[in-house]
Amino acid sequence: MTKPGRTLLKVQGLTKRFGGLVAVNNMTFDVHEHEVLGLIGPNGSGKTTTMNLISGAFPPSDGSITMNGQRLSGLAAHQIARRGVSRTFQLVRVLPGLSLVDNVVAGAAFGYRKRWGAEAEQFARGLLERIGLGDHMHLPVGSLTYIDQKRLELARALAGEPEVLLLDEWLAGLNPTELQEGIDLIAELRREGRTIILVEHVMDAIRSLCDRCVVMNSGAKIAEGTPRDVLSDPEVIRAYLGDE
Amino acid sequence: MTGSGWKEIGLAAGLVILAAFVPLVTDGYWLSIAVTAMMYIALATAWTLFSGPTHYISLATGAFFGIGGYLVATGMSDYDISFWVMAAVAPFVAVVLAAIVGAATLRLSGIYFVIFTLGLAEMIRGLVSWVQNNFLGSRGLYVLTDFTEAHIYWMLLIIAAVVYLIGWLIERSRLGFAMKIIGNDEGVAKHLGINTAAAKVALFMITGYFTALVGVVIAPRYSYIEPNLVFSPELSFLVVIMALLGGTQRLWGPIVGVIPFTLIWETISVSFPNATTFYLGLSFLLIVYFIPNGFVGLVEKLARRRQG
């Protein structure tokens, strides 16, 4: 891996209230360039909500998110995407009416580094090859297996060459063989020096992929550090397993 | 640019030239049918620009069309403004309305959008009738010009050709691609960097412009205009039915839907003038039930079967 660089993304006092429910409570953390940051915690701890706040699916109630000193919080999702934040979705969302290549072009045409026409198509084909879908290029999207749909979604997210990539449980729902393929794929992205925030439950993936982890429980940060440190932290173990 | 794209536009240009000869070979009854068909071709193609890729069924056709027809009539009848000036101005009023409707309905999806556009068209019809009856005196408006049926036909043909050309260009542009993505998954579209609101409103404004322009050009044919005639909900439904019959996934879909349906509708209106609403509903059900993807869907299914 490349050495983690300067601070790219800064999350400060991030809070999201849905009516009386505080889904994310005063979260503060930094993401460094070329780093894979794991956002982990038990179900319902607010990880996906945090991802949705960063990508602009909805605005925060309080706090700020900045990237390279530019404020992202308060911007609409499409503006955030254009500034260099790409994402995949917890439940895979490919575009069924478009060809595989067009699915990826969709990520390149409007995103951070824009490509269009023949150049975009060539770039998309290259990405599909790299991500392991080279042989399926002419199949309809609907006939892809679950992991291949996930690959496609990842290729789409990479197509805009984002500064920060958000992967929301990208490894969930894969069988053991697919899981290993998936981990290898993300490990390759890590070696390329991409900046990634990863929401994940698969412990093997967290240990092998993450440079650092932020652990959430009930909407708040309870620990931060290397995977080894946070996973042996008594409070983290209590959050996952309960008191006894 | 792909070869099939040029072939498509070449074929379309050929058809436009052929269609231009229709008034030279026939007049009377068949020309009047041709004018009606050309009106619906322009309307259904304009409708498909927005509703095809987004799958938002708009019932606002009557409202835009009515604005065109009614403004021309008011301008010429009450203010002695020339037809051409009104033809230049009226469609922009529809564009402004489309922008307002678009902005107001951005958060609505699916069925709510349908109901909103229907309600809007009816509201405008009611409002215009009320203003006319209470303030302008309930006299009719006359649109008297020297245009013959052939002139009207050619003007409609030009509008239809321009709408088609614009649709063809949009389909190949980033805007068209954005609309396709929005039609697939609007949430994903936003996260890919597409300003979905702006894209949808832009397309809706283009649809509004040309729909109103058709209303303008057809007004001299009616010569006597009253709000209930031009702000017609039946027109809105007919355009949807014809576009769906043809199929909205391809730009040429509505055209192949309009031609047979115009003939069917003509027969129905003549034979059962008091039951048109019934037949309107019946056709709608039959089309949605038996050919949900229209003729385009049928043709492409057959083509796939022959290939595979």
Automatic annotation (TrEMBL), chain A:
Residues 9-243 form the ABC transporter domain. GO terms for cellular component: plasma membrane. Keywords: ATP-binding, Nucleotide-binding, Transport. It holds the Pfam family BCA_ABC_TP_C. The keyword ATP-binding applies. GO terms for molecular function: ATP binding; ATP hydrolysis activity. InterPro entries: AAA+_ATPase (IPR003593), ABC_AA/LPS_Transport (IPR051120), ABC_transporter-like_ATP-bd (IPR003439), BCA_ABC_TP_C (IPR032823), P-loop_NTPase (IPR027417). Gene3D superfamilies: P-loop containing nucleotide triphosphate hydrolases. It comes from the Bacteria. The keyword Nucleotide-binding applies. PANTHER family: CONSERVED COMPONENT OF ABC TRANSPORTER FOR NATURAL AMINO ACIDS (PTHR45772:SF9), CONSERVED COMPONENT OF ABC TRANSPORTER FOR NATURAL AMINO ACIDS-RELATED (PTHR45772). This is ABC transporter ATP-binding protein. The lineage of its organism: Bacteria, Pseudomonadati, Pseudomonadota, Alphaproteobacteria, Hyphomicrobiales.
UniProtKB/TrEMBL annotation, chain B:
Signal peptide: none annotated. It comes from the Bacteria. InterPro entries: ABC_transp_permease, LivM-like. Pfam families: BPD_transp_2 (PF02653). One of its GO terms (molecular function) is branched-chain amino acid transmembrane transporter activity. The keyword Transmembrane applies. This is Branched-chain amino acid ABC transporter permease. Keywords: Cell membrane, Membrane, Transmembrane, Transmembrane helix. It is found in: Cell membrane. One of its GO terms (cellular component) is plasma membrane. It comes from Roseibium aggregatum. The keyword Cell membrane applies. The lineage of its organism: Bacteria, Pseudomonadati, Pseudomonadota, Alphaproteobacteria, Hyphomicrobiales. It is a multi-pass membrane protein. The chain crosses the membrane at residues 9-25, 31-50, 57-75, 81-104, 111-131, 151-170, 201-222, 228-245, 252-272, 278-299.
